[in-house]
Structures are given as C-alpha cells and as structure tokens.
Design brief:
With about 180 residues, the protein is an alpha+beta fold. It has 2 domains: about 150 residues, no CATH class; about 35 residues, no CATH class. The strands form 3 sheets. It has a 3-stranded mixed beta sheet, with helices on one face. Strand 5 and strand 6 form a beta hairpin. The longest helix is centred in the middle third of the chain and has 12 residues. The radius of gyration is 20 Å and the shape is elongated.
Length: about 180
C-alpha cells in the first residue's frame, strides 16, 4: 500500500490533499512506512492516514462499522465537517484494537487536531446550527475549538436561550466570564 500510493503521489503531484482509511490487521507498519517513505509530500501537500489497528488484529469490521455510525450520528463537539481527528475517539468502541493516525500538512488551515480541509463527511450533528452552510461557520468552528465550558458560561448561555424569541439580547458580566465566547 505504502509504495503504491507513493508512486501515484509522485506521478500526480497536483493532488491537494489525501485521506486514507485502512480497516486491516497490523496496519501500523503501513503507518510507519508512510511516515518514512512519503517524502514526495515534503515539497508541499496534505494527507491523513487513519488505521484500524497498529500491530494487532482488526476484529469483525469494528473500525468500519464504528466510523459509519459516527458518520450517521455526527459528533456534536466537532466542526461543520468531520475529520479523522474528530472520529478517532469513537474508535475506542473497538476494545481489542488500537487505531492510529498520521497527519502531514505543509499548508495553512491545519492544527494539532488535523487539517480542516481534509474532512471526511459533513457533520450531521451540526445540521441544525444557525451558521450551517454560511462562510462564518468555519470561523465559528475555529473560535470555539477547544472551548472549555465554565459554570459562568453555562449560566449565561442558559439565560440567553431562556430569553425566548426576543430580538434584542444584552449580554453583560465581569471580565473573563465568557461574553465574547458566548457571542
């Protein structure tokens, strides 16, 4: 797999991004091989590789069925689109195997959590968001990624939601209570 993909990347260097999901036993060697041998990406590019198991066995299609369930339900705390980093925690439902992920990006738009441009599917948990489909959705995701919901923020949000359908809402509070985050 590693050599075949490397050859194709060499031939087709204009590929902007690549995501590979592998539901196979002992796929960790492919992960290590990709890290060592996909030097063609060193000139620029983005890729993510998510494998079902590292050195052990992959059992009963658990990786694939768990991903399909995550895609169908969505991930509430993830962004508008699901990335490998967003769905990898769901793979803990496969107790007999250890999934692993390798990510590489030389462009902008990436974070320690993965590359926002290398998404797998739209996040169905976000289908009712007020910013879904708008250009501001990405900005909202960026500003709220890693958000820690404090008691003060939770109280302010509850008060805001409980205000009903009033068009004008005033958000007040001392410095650091989460007014900007709430907005």
């Amino acid at each position: 797999m590693v050599q075949g993909i490397r050859e194709r990347l060499t031939r087709h260097q204009s590929i902007d991004g690549l995501v590979i999901l592998v539901d196979a036993s002992q796929a960790g060697e492919g992960l290590r091989g990709a890290a060592r041998r996909w030097d063609v990406l060193s000139g620029g590019g983005r890729m993510e590789l998510l494998v079902a198991s590292t050195d052990g066995s992959a059992y009963n299609g658990c990786f694939t069925s768990t991903l399909v369930r995550a895609f169908a339900a969505g991930v509430p705390r993830a962004g508008e689109s699901l990335r490998c980093a967003d769905v990898q925690p769901a793979l803990n439902a496969c107790p007999l195997q250890d999934s692993a992920r390798l990510a590489f990006s030389t462009g902008s738009g990436s974070s320690g959590e993965g590359d926002d441009g290398l998404w797998l599917v739209p996040n169905l948990a976000r289908r009712d968001d007020s910013v879904r489909g708008l250009a501001s959705a990405g900005l909202v995701d960026q500003l709220t990624r890693g958000l820690i919901v404090t008691d003060a923020l939770r109280e302010n949000l509850t008060a805001l939601v409980d205000a009903g359908n009033q068009r004008l809402r005033l958000i007040t509070g001392p410095a650091g209570c989460g007014k900007s985050t709430l907005m």
